[in-house]
């Protein structure tokens, strides 16, 4: 294993630990909100968050990807690209969020729900800034500072929201807590970036810096926008076609999906600079397949648990009111994380190869698939229909991306990296099907069976994967 691969794996592990802590905190306040708020109020909050992230994609454009690509290729340009990207994103966000706030002023059912949406839109600003800070850390391949900042943000957000709910402040208090957490998080991200010796001054910003930041981002931005539409449009359509209560049902299942997606994002931020820094086809394919093997270790057992025990897990966390319908939606979402990762890593490879048009084609085909299926499936099937549409769309995107990459020598493979986790997941499925016990006991036993099976298989057919895991664990212990 080369030094680049080990460094990428180490960075992915640091981000992964931070994302785990952050996702646990986010899941905690989501569980609290689902249990305390009415289904309609929880659905309204979920819709506001989804709309904020959807609109943020307009402002985010392709600037963060541009920071990673340009900064990796030209280290001296990183401070200028960072500042220029922040200015562009802020200007676009002011426009997009402002227009959205005005347009929804009279369309929200109550004045309180509009204030919830307005607070979430304000939270979009520090969210955008923090994302760019994490892109800078990815270029520097020094994720510890921003990872700590992300954990601080998620923990502060969780504490603020739970406190607001306990005080009886309802959806408005939740939104205020969310805003407070993002502001604290941005402050922590800003400190982390300064420690990486990236300290541009706004006074020194030039038109050349703005042009540099915007250069080459158009197709990436359009593709990113399409990707975010693919990621969030189902929630918006559910709200309009079936109402806030159905949004709440879907949000519960989708929150569990989002909780595990941190693995994809952590690995993606680690492998994109590696892919961009080399023109070697074998190294690029190796980066893709190793990234896929890492996420498969988590996502294949997630799929098994979601199908066989999803309703029990939902009931345990969110209450019996969500168990049946959200459990059914979760089963339809079970394959989505792995399919999403396959398309995400393939898109990263296309980005490294400067194939922006191909990225746009793949994401556009997936979005059209998602929109068509949502419009057909949501009216009769609600949250389950939206979940099925999401999974199908990611499957289509993965197929299209891999078809585009067939010309790469050697071409990336999707199925072979999954073999160790797939074989071990069969043991997990058998354990869950045969054992009749409380869900936590079943999951604990199943996890033991899965880990044992994975180690036995990986020792025989992919010992290098086991070697990397051992080295990562030893590094974390030494720290």
From TrEMBL:
Pfam family, one: Polysacc_synt
GO cellular component terms given for this protein: plasma membrane
Keyword Heme belongs to the record: no
Main location class: membrane
This protein's UniProt keywords: Cell membrane, Membrane, Transmembrane, Transmembrane helix
Membrane topology: Multi-pass membrane protein
Location(s), subcellular: Cell membrane
Transmembrane regions: 44-67, 87-106, 112-129, 150-168, 212-232, 252-272, 292-318, 330-353, 360-378, 384-405, 417-437, 443-462
InterPro entries referenced in this protein's UniProt entry, alphabetically: Poly_Biosynth_Transport (IPR050833), Polysacc_synth (IPR002797)
Name of the protein in its database record: Oligosaccharide flippase family protein
